[in-house]
Amino acid sequence: MNLPNKLTVLRMIIVPIIVVLYLLPYTSLDVDFFVIHVLGSSIDFIHLAVAVLFILASVTDFIDGKLARSRNLVTTFGKFMDPIADKLLVNSLLILLAYDRSIPVLCTLLMIARDLIVDAIRLLAAQNQHVLAASPLGKAKTMTQMIGIGCVLLCNFPFAWTGILVDVGLIILATVISVISGVDYFMKNRHLIFESI
User: Fold this and answer.
1) φ/ψ of residue 90, rounded to 5
2) Cβ-contact 194, 175 below 8 angstroms
3) Cα–Cα distance, 130 to 123 (Å, whole number)
4) Which CATH class is domain 3-196?
5) What are residue 42's DSSP bridge partners?
6) pTM of the model as a whole
7) What are the tens digits of pLDDT across the range 96-120?
8) pLDDT recorded at residue 31
9) Cα 67 from Cα 89, distance rounded (Å)
10) b or e along 91-102 (b: 16 or more beta carbons within 10 Å of the residue's beta carbon)?
11) What are the contacts of 176-182 at 24+ separation with CB within 8 A?
């Protein structure tokens, strides 16, 4: 297994750690964490720890793709698993943030529905011996989601002092890009659906 693929696997391993860290019932365990106050944001230790892990995982996404292309290490595994690792990471956090009402539930539902449809098309393609790489719109969606989720986890840092909800705005923008990229992906690959019927 080459280095880019190892980074993809690492990203998948980080996801359950983030989920457990986020969902542990700290109040019932009588655990009290410090809160950092900076530029109008109040960030508790758990959100900070989850944000650091999320940013680390997001950076591995950028690095694995760059390495794979620059060193000619692109593999079928990487083409297939890299987008799945991204979706596991991003969708897990979207669900957690919607659960605690940090972001609109509708945004989470639309983005996950889009991913399910795209994944179904990918599975159909795989059955027909085709590997569909991520599209530029899909990459823009993932990048916007990652930046937006990072801002939400950091309680709108560094924008909180402005009073503008940049974090939620980025999530809404990611939702719009997600829907557009989903429609684009469907239109470009609809022949796979019709071939399988």
Assistant:
1) -65, -50
2) no
3) 9
4) mainly alpha
5) 37
6) 0.86
7) 999 999 999 999 999 999 999 988 8
8) 67
9) 20
10) bbbbebbbeeeb
11) 177/137, 177/140, 177/141, 177/144, 178/110, 178/111, 178/114, 178/115, 178/141, 178/145, 179/110, 179/114, 180/137, 181/114, 181/135, 181/137, 181/138, 181/140, 181/141, 182/114, 182/117, 182/118
The pair of structure tokens assigned to 112 is 């996950």
Class of residue 44 by CB neighbours under 10 A (exposed 0-12, middle 13-18, buried 19+): middle
The one-letter amino acid at 101: R
**Exposure b/e, 45-67, CB count within 10 A at least 16 = b:** ebbbbbbebbbebbebbeebbeb
Place of tokens 């892990």: 53
Amino acid at 9: V
